Amino acid sequence: xxxxxxxxxxxxxxxxxxxxxxxxxxxxxxxxxxxxxxxxxxxxxxxxxxxxxxxxxxxxxxxxxxxxxxxxxxxxxxxxxxxxxxxxxxxxxxxxxxxxxxxxxxxxxxxxxxxxxxxxxxxxxxxxxxxxxxxxxxxxxxxxxxxxxxxxxxxxxxxxxxxxxxxxxx
Length: 170
Fold this sequence. Notes:
By secondary structure, the protein is an alpha+beta fold.
């Protein structure tokens, strides 16, 4: 009597389509260009649509840095007017005590400093984005994904192996 062994065969089929040739970008060059000037790496990678996002982000961050800096200086001057003994200088915030003025001054300074730090992080994200896209541009993203299941009989060393073949195509 012959032994019948159940076998599952999994086969991967990876097809490379030659329909569309991808331009290969140098990640080091994209990184250096973005480090020299924000957005230049994206231009090298031909991602022109990211330029308004990058410079728009810098404009928004710059606006809020200026706003927080102006508010910091306004409360700093108010605190100076509050604690000096000169009668001719008047605190523009008469309802705020010395402690309130100090807290507000610290609040606006902290916000300004955090936004300056965030500007550096935003700059680094710009560099990382250019570098990663240059790497991932070669990644094949076609939608040819399929699975095929079919019965299979193999003869190995005079034994019949009955099984199921699973073909994955990607």
